[in-house]
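hey so u asked for the seq, here:
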Amino acid sequence: MTTNATKEYKPLRWYNHQAFPLVPQLEFKPEDKHNTAGFSFSWLFFRIWTLDSFGFELSIICDWQWGLGLIGILPYLRWALTIPIPMKWSIWVQRNLWRKPKSANW
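ran it, structure tokens below
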């Protein structure tokens, strides 16, 4: 389930799943005593959200959390342009390609 700052829960369906939402999702976070205001937007393979810190970054990535693509930070703004990797592939890699510890014979 997804939630916004007002704690209204929205059930996840096939069309609004967080990995690759077919319906655009826009969420606002109001400012309070301890946090700044912000927003997040995601649609298909594009995501953008606000940050509280200043910074720059540009990364080419290939991992199981984000998928394949580009991630960057502009001042107070983070964006990701990624294509998700199917969960079956990540499970296969974890089972077959990860290093396995040697069994301890005490």
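The mean pLDDT is 81. Strands lie at 2-3, 9-10, 25-29, 38-43, 46-50, 57-63, 67-74, 77-83.
lmk if thats what u needed
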